[in-house]
């Protein structure tokens, strides 16, 4: 997977699927499909824990469950924009002041589909701190991490 | 509304002056005057930034009433890095699983009816 940062304070993930755009889009807005992949690994999202109403103002809520210990991870989003089968935008009002995720689905014309997840309002720490020699401990790791984004 | 610790960390890191202060403190303790020296802003403004950093737990300040040297605290930065790494990991795994799911359903569609 490509995994590149774009502008400061934003983050982008890109993946190309060997599947038609309508199908990929349908998977992303249908509880019956989401339950298979919303994951992540080691974490399940039972279908009864998924509420999705893909239209502006509609909710997108899931409760992911850790397979090992049953710990629950709620996710709460609200759709801002839904353009079938091209675009999905939701915000997470609970996360760091309203993180916004924008998913763009592009038909590559050969049966494949490119999906780009663009997140903005990601915690603004992605900005590169002043380069500074002699940094230590976690600040060192932090700078290296941000520089590598 | 009080922010959770991670939000305070992110909010504190959002400002370039505060990041510069943290970068300076990564090289060792410093007083308010020392921290203010590179900046063209008032001591009062620097003190405000230090309060934000202190509330976020990113720095601690000495007890000496006269100088109160500031010191970088590592733990909140570790938490912030951990949050981002987890977040990236989740999307990677989600995408992997979607790929597998798409393969599964397309294979099922192609199978001839029995």
Name the features.
heterodimer, A: 149 residues, alpha+beta, Alpha-D-Glucose-1,6-Bisphosphate, Chain A, domain 4, 9-stranded antiparallel sheet, 3 helices, 39% strand, globular, disordered N terminus, disordered C terminus, B: 114 residues, mainly alpha, Arc Repressor Mutant, subunit A, two-stranded antiparallel ribbon, 5 helices, 5% strand
Gap between N and C termini of chain B: 61 Å
Total E-strand runs of chain A? 9
Tally of contiguous helical segments of chain A:
3
Q: CATH H level of chain A: which superfamily?
A: START domain
Sheet having the most strands of chain B: 2 strands, antiparallel
Amino- and carboxy-terminal Cα gap of chain A: 14 Å
Instruction: Give the count of helical stretches of chain B.
Output: 5
* Helicity level of chain A: 10-25%
Low-confidence stretches of chain A: 1-8, 123-149
Task: Report mean pLDDT of chain B, rounded to a whole number.
Answer: 83
Overall body shape of chain B: rod-shaped
Which architecture name of chain A does CATH use? 2-Layer Sandwich
Number of domains of chain A: 1
Q: What is the averaged pLDDT score of chain A?
A: 76
Range of helix content of chain B? 55-70%
């Amino acid at each position: 997977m490509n995994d590149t940062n774009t502008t400061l304070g934003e983050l982008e993930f890109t993946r190309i699927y060997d599947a038609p755009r309508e199908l990929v889009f349908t998977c992303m807005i249908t509880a019956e499909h989401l339950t298979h992949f919303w994951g992540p690994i080691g974490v399940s999202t039972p279908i009864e824990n998924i509420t999705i109403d893909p239209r502006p103002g509609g909710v997108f809520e899931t409760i992911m469950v850790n397979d090992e210990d049953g710990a629950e991870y709620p996710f709460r989003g609200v759709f801002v924009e839904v353009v079938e089968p091209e675009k999905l935008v939701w915000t997470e009002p609970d996360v760091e002041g309203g993180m916004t995720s924008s998913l763009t689905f592009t038909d590559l014309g050969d049966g494949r589909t490119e999906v780009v997840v663009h997140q903005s309002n990601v915690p603004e720490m992605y900005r590169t701190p002043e380069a500074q020699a002699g940094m230590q401990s976690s600040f060192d790791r932090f700078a290296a991490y941000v520089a590598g984004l | 509304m009080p922010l959770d610790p991670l939000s305070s960390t992110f909010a504190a890191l959002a400002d370039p002056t505060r990041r510069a202060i943290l970068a300076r403190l990564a090289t060792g303790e410093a007083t308010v005057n020392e921290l203010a020296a590179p900046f063209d802003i008032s001591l009062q403004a620097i003190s405000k930034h230090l309060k934000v950093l202190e509330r976020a737990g990113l720095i601690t300040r000495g007890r000496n009433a006269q100088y109160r040297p500031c010191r970088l605290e590592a733990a909140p930065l570790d938490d912030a890095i951990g949050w981002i790494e987890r977040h990236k990991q989740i999307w990677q795994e989600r995408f992997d699983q979607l790929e597998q799911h798409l393969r599964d359903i397309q294979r099922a569609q192609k199978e001839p009816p029995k």
